Predict the structure.
Amino acid sequence: MAGKSESQKLSRPVVTIATLGVAVGVALMIISVAIVTGFQQEVRDKVVGFGAHFQIVNADQSFNKESSRIEISQDFYPSLGDAEGIRQIQIFATKPGIMETSDNLQGVVIKGIGTDFDWSFFNSKITRGQPLQIGESAGESQLMISEFTAKRLELDLGDKVTLYFVLKEGDIRPRNFEITTMFNTGLKEFDEQFVFVDIAHIQRINKWGIEAQIALIDSCQRDVVTVQGFGFGGQNDLRYSWSESSLAGPGPHEIVMGTSIDTTFSLIVTDGANTLADTAFLKISKTNTDSCFHGSLTTSGGSWKYYAGGFEVLIDDYAQLGDMDDAVFYEVPYYLDVLSVADRNPEIFSWLEMLDLNVDLIIYMMILIAVVNMTSALLIIILERTNMIGMLKAFGMRDRYVVFIFIRHAARIIGIGMLVGNLIGFGLCALQKSTGLIKLNPETYYVDYVPIRFDFLYLFQIEAITFVVCVLMMLLPALYVSKISPVKAIRFD
């Protein structure tokens, strides 16, 4: 009896240790998966926020920061935004630039956005000011920059800055802006790089379209006026087509008004590169009391507004990135290319994928530790119950039923350990998720706190596999029961 008592004293702490080992292993698996998946989602969302899941660009643009023009009028725009799995399609343009203050300079990527821009990401990242007003006169000089850039250049909300747009020819064009919005995503690599403006600035600076103008330069001669045509933008080689077939070229042209009191002339300006044309109308009028003719000019403002640097496509589920890549690709014409966020940022997404390997290693190690602990515990329990095993065999119970008894007991210990592990793991994760208690350096980790994401389906699969593997592995020590002789077992002390 003394031996039996000592055996029980030994098995109980071993079983407790095994249970705690399973609990700690499960808790660590839950915490590891929650942190890694949360971290991956947080970083992915930030990268996607700066450039969407897909960008549709000219095939010759590739990965350049300089956008090539694309006509906005496309068969897939904006109808592609209504397709299943796609949340939004929007126009954009990018251009390299330099931000200048009185004391500092910084190279930036100027991103132009339109009225269809999805603000859902930046609404939670804007720290000061309001979202840019796009397409309105008030928004023409508005600029959105990051808190990181503002701190580096010693800028504040409402400050005036000069942005230099770098042209392909090596020329630079300055434009003055007022800082009306500041944001902070914590993704330093992008925060220090991007500034946001109305896309109209890039459309005009790049001369993507043509703007036609007519000037009345001499209107006080009797029955004769002199008009001059102007064309801006396009790809050079501008061509002028007047409503008066006798007029050719920009002028100046003298026009005999005769007895006409109100006459309207139109000018269509085109180029040799199939740029969308622009038309201007000049109404020339004169009253009986006037000594000079008066001109009233009507223009469209230019055809540049019909071009963009490309289209950004946001999807509902990042997990469908591969399938949606094919779906979007088959919707666009051959001269356009589709670049996914992973294609544009391979180093970041390769790094995020490597984190999955770390999680896999942790899971394998925790399962191995749980198996070793449970194997030791089960062997000790079997040794403790040797007399009982002998009695059961003596009464005719087959080995497989005796083995099943110990497997069921091991499964119970594993189940209790997993339950405790779930309480610990989910409890700690919920605490971090609600409070953000553990902080990180955003310059190193891209986030300022440890992010948590609960992927319950994935966690359930991991725990189910862990439970099955651990129980199956208990068959090996449990098979030791078949080697125990009933006679020796009954006499075992």
The chain has three domains: 2-46+348-491, 60-207+306-333, 210-301. The CA atoms of residues 261 and 287 lie 7 Å apart. Residues 210-301 form one domain.
